[in-house]
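Listing S7. Sequence submitted for prediction.
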Amino acid sequence: MAEKVKSDIEIARVAKMKPVEVIAAKLGIPAGEIFRYGHHKAKISLDYVASVEGKKDGKLILVTAMTPTPAGEGKTTTTVGLGDGLNRIGKKAIICLREPSLGPCFGVKGGAAGGGYAQVVPMEDINLHFTGDFHAIAAANNLLAAMLDNHIYWGNELNIDQRRVSWRRVVDMNDRALRQIVSSLGGVANGFPREDGFDIVVASEVMAIFCLSRDLADLKKRLGNIVVAQTRDRKPVRARDLQAEGSMATLLKDALMPNLVQTLENNPAFIHGGPFANIAHGCNSVMATRLGLKLADYVVTEAGFGADLGAEKFFNIKCRKAGLDPAAAVIVATIRALKMHGGVAKDSLGKEDIGALERGFSNLARHLENVGQFGVPRVVAVNRFTTDTDAEIAKVQELCKAVGVTAIMCTHWAHGSAGTEALAKHVVGMIETGGAKFKPLYPDEMPLWDKIRTIAQTLYGAKDIDAETAIKTRIKDLQEGGYGHYPICMAKTQYSFSTDAAKKGAPSGHVVNVREIRVSAGAEFLIAVCGDIMTMPGLPKVPAAVKITVDDKGQIDGLF
């Protein structure tokens, strides 16, 4: 009888973790500079973060992916596997990941701490409340909302137009009932009723600010710049006008310290911050990434969803704003996902289908071309499944070779670092040849409308962009109002290059409609909302939550 394949949580449960101070010592971090959260989690003091600022940077490696499918690609798993693989071949490497959101954890995706033998641990803690960062971000966000409504209640000295309040409350859970609400019902004592709504924490501007801030002073300045509403004469009202930035920063002070954990192979991992990539910029914190670069020779980080979203925002927003210089990019693909983009149904992916694989390769090919436009050398990591046939593997390698990129089979889910040793050696080889000449896709001075069009035409294969007259006027006003130098954060479906989630492969000639434009003055980017995209997800018909439980001994089951 075949041996039962262990689940992610079963593998994580028997992991031989080392005390977190031992992991910190691997990086040269003194025990006195960490704040322990139990035996295996810690935060790194802000004083220590500041003390290493003058050190030379290591090399930054981005892990991104082809367009995601329900078949799963394993981007986080590959990030962990590559970090372990680099350590396996004698390199000093750190991985930098985002913190998982409770919404997807209890919704569709389940956990987000890697999988199989390429995980970060303690897996249950990371996927649930972790060190409380998301709760602090939600509290800071909702404090600002409370102070805004309170200001209006006590006389509205700033002359805020209640019809133009843009700041929403947040909760870290998928809850469609909160998307659109009416607040302040119940009489005069409860304030002035108005239409309102909730976003999920990972879609909030506070989360974006948290992840882009370099230090506490930068955080406080950015929080003060948040635009929460407009006055009756259309002037912006900011958080600093409400004197809210100090108290918000106070709530975020401890959360801002990067979190240190470990992989199953006891290698260091920073997990800090977690904006979604389809509605936010999809990268872990600048503080954690910059700290990693000061402490290791190689830093492996991921950006959410496919390269059209996560990688584009990593390059155009995070690297631009933080002065980062990426040295290499790994694009994760699976044969299953390639076949799905080629028209194969999910329940038929286990059957060999070279024709579908060739058709679906158009999706990966476009991602490879797109990443190449940023001047960063690329390699494809094929996350191998047991159903992949030798003929399919050979075809993927052949197709990648034809576009000038190497494809390397990886078995890290089953074999840990041994399954990414070849990938690690190839990535080091790419970096040592010095081929990276990173450049963003567009300059700061390019007009806002042209920035959106450049992304859509260059990366999405679109014919053009369009918007209603009111949106075009809004973009023109923002251009003239001092926001023209901001980068663009595109909010669209993660399942297609277009704004139609059903269009697989590499659609072209479509028109990207800009439905809304939002100002994130604290994060210092503008959000272009395209197509049907929501900042508060809902739970599926059968959410992952129904399978998650805890037994009488406190042992969690059902996370995956």
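Caption to Listing S7: primary sequence and predicted structure tokens for the chain studied. The first strand starts at residue 34 and ends at 36. The domain at 8-132+255-432 is CATH 3.40.50.300 (Rossmann fold).
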